[in-house]
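Chapter summary example.
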Amino acid sequence: MDENTVIMGNPPFYGSFLQSPEQKSDTLSVWKSISGSGNLDYVANWYLVAARHIAPAGGRAGFVSTNSITQGQQPAIIWGQISPLGVAIDFAHRTFSWTNEASGRAAVHCVIIGFSSRPKPKKLPIWSYRTVKGDPELGLVSQINAYLLDAPNILITARSKPLQPGTQKMEKGSIPTDGGLLSNIGSAEADEIRASDATAAKYLRRLVGARELIHNEIRFCLWLVDANPTDLRTSPTLSARIKGVRALREASPKKTTQRDAERPTEFQEIRQPSTDYIAVPKVSSETWSGPRKLDT
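The structure predicted for these 296 residues follows.
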């Protein structure tokens, strides 16, 4: 190292949904109005800022990063801006598990990517891991693309419709926006409702989200679509929870949520299938045993 070497700390490993308003503002200041940039991991900001600095000067940069920047829609957004600067990947570590020694230890799947605008040698180093907690194995490849593959740097952009006509569209699940009053009822609480309020108990249904699917946990909801209006008025459990949902939505800063306070008996967004379907968790786990048919 010499006087031209700069060492910086890494940003927090936050995806788009976990970023604070201040961090969202950081992303906006870096990416401006670039389509899809609001869905980027926070670390992506460092990539574009670094690329802008090193492109004209011939410098090099490298970051430990959340591995999601090499998956899904993010590579096309990130490298769609970096590649035109003449910057490309010099070396990489594919996905591995990283932890730290701090209290409340962070555990995240990471990659390491080094990049520059310098000419590339015929062979580039890339480290792979047989398992995310295994040891790195060095390989030499002719190129490293945005997905950390030895393949042409073709960027796959997001599509709103499947490539194959007639393919069933994958949609997001139902969104309660209810503070858990209707949607987050544990087994013990469900038993209490059955024991104390027979009217409300009629509307208990098992609810399966990503956490329940991955960890095989049990969770219930009060499904009040097409519920008898008399039941909604006379059940102490239902009337109290409906009142709570209304108040929560009315207090929201979002206009659409405020509007939906007028229908507090329902999830805010309902996408409950009427036929068999395949549920895919948005966030998975290395310990997930894979798809299974749930008992209902």
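To summarize the output: The CA atoms of residues 19 and 42 lie 7 Å apart.
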